[in-house]
Amino acid sequence: MTKQELFFDVIILGSGPAGFSAAIYASRGNLKTAILDISMFGGQPSNYLELENYPGFSLIGGFELMEKFEQHADKFGVEKFPMVEIQSVKLNSELKEIETNDTIFKAKSIIIATGAQAKKLNITGETEFKGRGVSYCAICDGAFYKDKIIAVVGGGNSALEEAMYLTKFAKKVYVIHRRETFRADKLVCERACKNEKIEFIMNNVPVEIKGNNTVENIVLKNIKTNELETISVDGVFPYIGIEPNTEFFNGQLKQNACGFIETDENMQTSVEGIYAAGDVRNTPLRQVITAASDGAVAACAAVKYIETLTTVQV
Ligand code: NAP
Fold first, then answer.
1. Catalytic annotation, pick one of 137, 193, 258, 264
2. Does the pLDDT of residue 6 top 70, yes or no?
3. Using an 8 Å Cβ cutoff, are 231 and 218 in contact?
4. Stretch 80-100: mean pLDDT, rounded?
5. How many angstroms separate the CA atoms of 207 and 216, rounded?
6. Closest atom of ligand 1 to CA, residue 118
7. When you count CB atoms within 10 A of the terminal residue's CB, does the N or C end of the chain come out lower?
8. Closest Cα to atom 34, ligand 1: which residue?
9. Active-site annotation holds for 258
């Protein structure tokens, strides 16, 4: 089958806050703009129950906020391609290429806003019980745990916020954290500590998830005493941070030791005309507001870059 070829000034990969913000700024900057995603649009915040730190909205659902981002991009005529099956990405030529199963997308500039995904515990039973008691999305799966017992692993904002959310369904939620103090914001810690359904197990890490058809136990190791303890749980929700979604770019761009893409203050990567924005890049803060800000900076830099090009015609 001959693949169709589509040409754009800029293609944005990823449709979270960085992607949609970049799309809005690029199309307002008069660039022929496309936004692609291998999933449904909206990125990680679509799965957040609610946010209370995005300026202008004292409380808003994550899904609702991302719908607003998308509607805003629609207003400026951004061309949208959700659920694309990317086969390869070529960044090192003047006209960049993204090949999918039926289309070759070509663009003068690419903004990578592919975000990050949940890190795995990498312990026995985690993969085996995924979808049968191991879940990385409380908002998707929480309702399956009515009156059950859940272990949430981690001590950051995600772990504590999702643990609180899960208490809406579960009769008990253990929060298992490897240290004595939390990484989460003070306010979030205070709220979680007041929740009577949450029991904190500090200085412990999970070493195995056990069960038959579904999860039945989690084995913990006390990192101070090395003692092992098995507790009965019906579900395990690891919230131990994130890793970048860079599988299509690995080796083509400069990345840090954890795989996050290195950029300068203009979101320019190590390859000319390729920008990275949001959680996928090496950044000190990963929030909706900072991702949106990165997207705006990247798009404005792409506009200026394209103005300097003389040879590539679209
Ligand atoms: P995070 O802040 O990196 O926290 C990860 C937690 O998991 C840490 O407590 C860490 O322990 C623990 N951990 C890491 N690897 C582990 C392992 N192998 N075994 C056991 N525990 C492990 O990640 P996050 O909570 O997913 O948050 C990611 C970013 O999103 C953060 O910037 C966060 O502020 C932001 N966020 C914001 C909101 C909001 O504003 N509403 C909500 C969610 C997330 P240590 O503390 O010992 O390192």
1. 137
2. yes
3. yes
4. 95
5. 14
6. 26
7. N
8. 157
9. no
